[in-house]
Specification:
There is one protein chain. The protein has seven helices and nine strands. By secondary structure, the protein is an alpha/beta fold. A five-stranded mixed β-barrel has the order 5-8-7-6-9. β3 and β4 (74-80) form a beta hairpin. α4 (163-175) packs across α7 (248-271). The longest helix is centred in the last third of the chain and has 24 residues, at 248-271. It starts with a helix and ends in a 6-residue tail after the last helix. Bound molecules: hypoxanthine (HPA). Hypoxanthine (HPA) is lined by residues 114-116, 193-194, 210-212, 235-236, 238, 246, 251.
C-alpha cells in the first residue's frame, strides 16, 4: 500500500475515534466564508491539529477545523480553512482533506474560493458558478502509483462540475435575487499573484477566473466519484485590469463584502440538494 493511502486511512481512523458523524455534503469554505458556521446547526467541531498527520494551514484567515452539523436536516461537513500547495505541502497533503471527507461519507463536494476576475465583464464582488476548470498550471494530485481503492488510473474529466448541481445553483441564485456569473476557473500555484501578461494568456485560453486552490481538490474528488460543484467569489479584477496593485488584504475585504450573498447562495443550494443525495 502507498504511503499516501496509509496516511489517508490513519487520518480517517483518527477522525472516527472522535466522531461517528456521517456527512452527505462536504463544503470547503474559501476566503469570505470564514464565519459560515453560523448557518449550520453545529454538532461537533474537530480542529485539524487534533488529527495526527493532517496538514495544518499557515495562511492568516484560514484557521483550520472540520465543522460537522446540519443544514436543514442535511448532514454536512465544512472545512473551515483549507491547505494550499504554495504553503509547501506535497500535493497529496493538499487533497488529503477532500479524500477524507469522501471516506467519511460525503457524496457531494461543494467548493468555494476567492478568485481574481479574468473575464473583462466581471466586477469585484461578483459570484461565479464554476462550469469547468483548467488544471495544467497546477500539479496533478493523481501523479504517482494509482490508489485503486479510490478510483481508476485515467479518470474521465468531461463533467467535473455536475450538471444537475449547476442547474440547482443557477435556479437558487435566481430565486434569491442573487446575480451569478458563470465561467471557467484556473488554478495557478501562487503564492505570487499573476503578472498582467499571464492574465492575458489565461484569458486567451478561455479562463474567466483565477485562483490558487479548488482545481486539485476537484481532480481528487472526481477520481473518487464525488459529485462536484463550485462557486468563486470574484474578490478583485486580476493583475493589469485595474491601476491598483493586488494585496491579500484587498482580496479578504472584497470577499467579506460579498459574504452575505455568498453564504445565502451556498446554504440555499445545499437545502436544494436533499433530492440529489
Ligand atoms: N489571483 C490569484 N488568486 C486570487 C486572486 C488573483 O487575482 N484573487 C483572489 N485569489
Amino acid at each position: 500500500m502507498s504511503e499516501v493511502y496509509d496516511k489517508l486511512i490513519s487520518c480517517y481512523e483518527c477522525v472516527r475515534k472522535k466522531t461517528d458523524f456521517v456527512p452527505k455534503v462536504a463544503i470547503v469554505l474559501g476566503s469570505g466564508l470564514g464565519d459560515y458556521a453560523e448557518n449550520i446547526r453545529v454538532e461537533y467541531e474537530l480542529p485539524y491539529s487534533e488529527i495526527e498527520g493532517f496538514p495544518v494551514s499557515t495562511v492568516p484567515g484560514h484557521a483550520g477545523k472540520f465543522i460537522f452539523g446540519f443544514i436543514d436536516e442535511i448532514p454536512v461537513v465544512c472545512m473551515k480553512g483549507r491547505v494550499h500547495f504554495y504553503e509547501g505541502y506535497p500535493i497529496s497533503d493538499v487533497v488529503l482533506p477532500t479524500r477524507l471527507m469522501k471516506l467519511m461519507g460525503a457524496r457531494i463536494l461543494f467548493l468555494t474560493n476567492a478568485a481574481g476576475g479574468v473575464n473583462t465583464s466581471f466586477h469585484a464582488g461578483d459570484l461565479m458558478l464554476i462550469k469547468d476548470q483548467i488544471s495544467v498550471f497546477a500539479p496533478n494530485p493523481l501523479i504517482g502509483a494509482n490508489m485503486d481503492e479510490l478510483g481508476v488510473r485515467f479518470p474521465d474529466m468531461s463533467t467535473v462540475y455536475d450538471g444537475e448541481l449547476q442547474q440547482l445553483i443557477r435556479r437558487t441564485a435566481k430565486d434569491n435575487g442573487i446575480f451569478l456569473q458563470e465561467g471557467v476557473y484556473a488554478q495557478l500555484t501562487g503564492p505570487s499573484f499573476e503578472s498582467p501578461a499571464e492574465i492575458r494568456m489565461l484569458r486567451t485560453l478561455g479562463c474567466d477566473a483565477v485562483g490558487m486552490s479548488t482545481v486539485v481538490e476537484a481532480i481528487a474528488a472526481n477520481h473518487m466519484g464525488m459529485k462536484i460543484c463550485g462557486i468563486s467569489c470574484i474578490s478583485n479584477l486580476a493583475a493589469g485590469m485595474t491601476a491598483n496593485p493586488l494585496t491579500h488584504e484587498e482580496v479578504q475585504e472584497a470577499a467579506d463584502m460579498a459574504a452575505p450573498n455568498f453564504k445565502k447562495l451556498v446554504t440555499e443550494s445545499v437545502k436544494g440538494m436533499k433530492k440529489l443525495i
